[in-house]
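Human: For the file, kindly provide a plain-text protein record giving the amino acid sequence and the backbone structure tokens, at your earliest convenience.
Assistant:
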Amino acid sequence: MLAHDLPASEAHARRALSRDGGSAWAWGRLGWVHAYHGDAAAAIEHCQIARVLAPADPLSFVWAIGIAAAHFELGRDREAARWYDRALFEEPRTTSLNRFSAPAHLCSGDRDAARRGLGALRKSFPDLTITQVRTGLPHTARYMDRIADGLESLGMSLS
């Protein structure tokens, strides 16, 4: 998935589900495939299934991020910010997530939370640019445009 090969990722997730329909990993990965394709409703559903199947799984925060991304894709900015916060609460070391949560907070009208998120991001990744954020994951153009606009509004450098 990180190599941006979504067809292969989907095939692996579906194969895993055919062998074990209760695989939280497979449901979550399939959720991410849907998120990256812009099918937000399916992404939310699949990531929710993953979280229900394995609520104590150390990777459950990843499925929360998938839910947040899908809500942001749909323009549900407050809900996206809430899910990004939940993921950060579940795994506080994931400071890179602030590259997405800060714009979600900004779009939801919580400029203070957006600034705090950007501050945490800059502390961990002082040289990160919008160009690097845009090329990191295979999100839709709409999603990445909204993220980039938010980061630029908060003062992050383009390159």
In short: The chain has nine helices and no strands. The chain has a mean pLDDT of 94.
